Amino acid sequence: MIRSPTLPGLLMLALTLSACGASRSPVPLVGAASDVSALTGEWAGDYSSAESGRSGSISFTLRAAGDSAFGDVVMIPTAWGRPLMPYREGNTAGAVGNQQPTSTVLTIRFVRVEHGHVSGTLDPYADPQTGARLLTTFSGELSGKAITGTYTTRLPSGDTQTGRWTVQRR
Fold this sequence. Notes:
This protein is mostly beta strands. It has helices at 33-39, 93-98; strands at residues 27-30, 41-48, 55-65, 68-70, 73-77, 108-114, 117-122, 125-126, 133-143, 146-154, 160-169. It has one domain: Quinohemoprotein amine dehydrogenase alpha subunit, domain 2 (Lipocalin, Beta Barrel), CATH 2.40.128.120. It has 2 helices and 11 strands, in the order βαββββαββββββ. It has a 9-stranded mixed barrel. A hairpin with a 2-residue loop joins strand 9 and strand 10 (146-154).
């Protein structure tokens, strides 16, 4: 098993959805070397949630480096027209709606892969309408050059919304 220390604070997957190369911080990976290597590469696809009414594109690049990986996640809601941004204290609906985000890259906090099953968490990100802090976990099944799965987003109220995601290796 490959193990790495946890980092302070991973696909939706925790997945690394990315339009750019490698992230600044490594993503801890847990899994057999063969399982981890099956995740490395460039991935692109979409996500949607009937509960939230949101859908959009996701992309990520995952590069393995020992017991960690590097990658960034970019999620672009269809109706919003620009990427989601990491959560920052003090985000408000007005700030989110009127300012260009300083970063549009979301970070995967942790990824576990075992026998083709992938799971993880994303660092908190800002709700595109209110700026509220959202937390998302994801899981999926790797089959050939595709990963298909579900995700759960925890709202500030404690309620959850679920959705589905799918990516293909480029």
